[in-house]
Amino acid sequence: MSAIRVLLADDQTLVRAAFAMLVESARDMEVVGQAGTGREAVELARSARADLVVMDIRMPDLDGIEATRLIAADEDLAGVKVLVLTTYDTDENIVEALRAGASGFLVKDTRPAELLDAIRTVAAGEALLSPGPTARLIARLLRSPSAPAAAGPECLSEREREVLTLVARGLNNTEIAESLGLSPLTAKTHVSRIMGKLGARDRAQLVIVAYESGLVTPGTM
Predict the structure, then answer these.
(1) Does residue 91 sit in helix, strand or coil?
(2) For the purposes of burial, counting CB atoms within 10 Å of the CB of 31, is it exposed (0-12), middle (13-18) or buried (19 or more)?
(3) Using CA atoms, how far apart are residues 214 and 158, in angstroms rounded to an integer?
């Protein structure tokens, strides 16, 4: 199995260096580039053929949200995942980053092993969403009066709506299968079908849809 090609984007040189040492210590990963601005991150994502970008939100020239949006919109970078780093788990920019196409987020003071696990999770195509803080954050922001209206998932079957609800609560395919009495393969098939129907890039965007549509609300967590 080939190593996960990781691009590190952070405007602090020491932070990038520390992350680089950590990533290089893992046998299944390699650092293929380091960017100090969002624009550099987009350019390096193309030239370095990265599989995943560890993206800081606050960077000069082009912030991490806009950089994520450009990467997600580029057909040539369709397979590139973005894992957003933030200083606080209450950072309101997290929602915008997820809307822009990020596959998850972590706070910067997370433990080293957790960062490596997060990279593996996102690179494998799963969303990394800390169920408690993420759910509360997204619910609060998206259900606020200023939140944009979004079409509900009317195109989904009743079973698919149940699966989407569990995805929004942070459950993985195995946990969804156990909760609904399904096989893991069937649960995975449901999630893939839901993503196709809703035009979602990944599970992180399914969470956004679930909250924007009102399918999941703070009271149901």
Answers:
(1) coil
(2) buried
(3) 15
What are the pLDDT digits (tens) for 98-147?
Answer: 888 888 888 888 889 989 998 998 888 776 665 445 555 555 555 554 44
What is the spatial order of strands in the sheet that 4-9 belongs to? 29-35, 4-9, 52-56, 81-86, 104-107
Q: Which residues pair with 86 in a beta bridge?
A: 107
Find out whether 59 and 33 touch, Cβ atoms under 8 Å. no
Bridge partners, residue 52, by sequence: 6, 81
Tell me the C-alpha distance between 83 and 197, whole Å.
24
Q: Whole-model pTM? A: 0.73
> What distance lies between CA 107 and its chain's CA centroid?
13
DSSP three-state, residue 57: coil
Query: Which string of b and e fits 12-24 if b means at least 16 CB within 10 Å?
Result: eeeebeebbebbe
In angstroms, the CA 161 to CA 5 distance is 35
pLDDT per position as a tens digit, 176-199 = 999 999 999 999 999 989 988 888
